[in-house]
Amino acid sequence: MLFNELGLSAELLRAVHEEGYETATPVQAQAIPEILRGRDILAGAQTGTGKTAAFTLPLLQHLQSGKTPSRKVRALVLTPTRELAAQVSESVRTYGRYLPTRVLQIFGGVSIRPQISKLREGVDVVVATPGRLLDHINQGTIDVSKVEVLVLDEADRMLDMGFIRDIRKILAVLPEGRQNLLFSATFSDEIRRLSRDFLNSPAEIQVTPRNTTVERITQVIHPVDKRRKRELLSHRIGSGNWKQVLVFTRTKHGANRLTGQLNTDGINAAAIHGNKSQGARTKALSEFKSGKIRVLVATDIAARGLDIDKLPYVVNYELPHVPEDYVHRIGRTARAGQDGHAVSLVCVDEHRLLKDIEKLLGTRLEQEIVPGYEPDPSIRAEPIQNGGGSAKRGGGRGAGKGARHNNGGGKKPAGRSGARKRPPNRNRRTG
Ligand code: AMP
Asked: Interior CA angle at 376 toward 371 and 381, to 5°?
């Protein structure tokens, strides 16, 4: 469907046109008309489907009509991570460039004062992570009493990160009668419960990702001993002349260590994870995008929602504990119709994780031993150490998304309620 058939205003169409978009993606074609009609939305859409524009465009159009009460926030977008908050507010600025809309991103890890003064000047759209937004609500530095549209972006990830209580507290102080839009990649019982509680007869939209794993991504497994992974990675990057590589590790510590080793090998690398300051993360991302940094080493939570165009290589330095994270990880490649390569370095300890991933994908992945890196058959599998990184999210194996996947909508696995009850903590929020 063409954008000019969706009922969007001239100012928005102009901005969309300048972005080079001609046709709306499926989630945009389905969601935009419903949102413009004022309906609540429950949308199943992952990053890469064009979901951000699907809610941002009609939201801006809504704000275009009607009067702006001074200094009162009219639209609120909640996101799980700072990076996503920054990206969504950037999209609001991009699509709203011919409108007077004022947007502010609000997240932790940076000083609260500039946020307070911006809020005092008056803001129409706030894009926020739940923790810092609650700080503002509790301090009375934000007035959310006139919010007309609420968006929960990547709701499943927000719940995984322990934000449910914060979200419910925020919902409790928002005015009645607003429009609610919920976007989530997956639908657990918990998401369904949340949506039942606050959505009013929503239009349900479900789209498949633009890049399905089977179509445009070549996936290969290199069996290798754990202690030789770093060497093999440097070898593959060097011999293949890979220019822009996103590498996933399971832990923050692992990300730091690998980054140091790659730099020692003469390969420019930077790490991105929750213990890095906002400034360091933004710098790493922009240097990676510009080509100054060749390898970005990331944990799952930090990488979620990153929009890096035409990323050619994704490497699983370690397989994720949660099989669905494999799909999210490799979804960073082959964007915008390009081919992509997903390479996984798998040691004997990870065979079980690989089996779980293959079960989820419903296919066996091709294995290719790199000459000179043959695994030593005498090495026995050992339990994987988590070491305080993102793998802990949701209580680890048996308590996270994998458990949800395996159990479908049926009985709850024993570990889950325990994981849910655990109070949110800073590390898990920012992974
Ligand atoms: P998202 O799913 O919102 O993270 O968007 C993924 C990417 O698709 C972003 O780089 C957008 O700029 C791009 N995009 C969004 N809508 C369209 C469209 N209709 N045509 C082409 N690219 C789009």
From this structure: 130
